[in-house]
């Protein structure tokens, strides 16, 4: 398993995975929208996308966005997306992607990495906890649709 940063040459394959990830979160499939979105992220360099390679096949990805903590006065990272193809789950791709994200945080002097997952996604929760992520019990998160 090799973890590398995605580039424009990976655009189509990452867009396929990104679209699958979105549908897992109950969104309508939209490959063309996913392609445009990932193209923008790569071109504008406003996120970091890592891919898990098994041989020549891209089997998973994670996408992180820089954020800032006023309280800690540090840059931090939002690990917004993590997805591995179902046929490749349990082979270490997600774990390796999380390790790469942790190295990014360390290398950039970040204060922390924030992530969220669906309450029913217990497999992911177990992996996150194994990797040292702690479920927040002191804060509530609120969303407002715009």
Automatic annotation (TrEMBL):
Transmembrane segments: none annotated. Signal peptide: none annotated. It comes from the Bacteria. Keywords: Acyltransferase, Transferase. The keyword Transmembrane helix does not apply. Residues 1-146 form the N-acetyltransferase domain. InterPro entries: Acyl_CoA_acyltransferase (IPR016181), Bact_Acetyltransf (IPR050832), GNAT_dom (IPR000182). This is GNAT family N-acetyltransferase. It comes from Chitinophaga defluvii. The lineage of its organism: Bacteria, Pseudomonadati, Bacteroidota, Chitinophagia, Chitinophagales.
């Amino acid at each position: 398993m090799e973890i590398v940063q995605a580039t424009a040459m990976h655009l189509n394959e990452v867009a396929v995975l990104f679209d699958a990830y979105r549908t897992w979160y109950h969104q309508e499939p939209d490959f063309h929208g996913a392609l445009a979105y990932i193209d923008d992220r790569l071109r504008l360099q406003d996120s970091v996308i890592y891919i898990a390679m098994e041989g020549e096949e891209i089997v998973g990805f994670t996408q992180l966005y820089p954020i800032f903590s006023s309280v800690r006065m540090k840059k931090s990272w939002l690990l917004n997306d993590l997805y591995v193809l179902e046929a490749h789950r349990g082979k270490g791709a997600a774990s390796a992607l999380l390790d790469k994200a942790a190295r990014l945080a360390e290398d950039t002097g970040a204060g922390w990495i924030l992530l969220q997952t669906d309450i029913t996604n217990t497999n992911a929760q177990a992996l996150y906890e194994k990797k040292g992520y702690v479920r927040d019990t002191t804060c509530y998160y609120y969303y407002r649709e715009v």
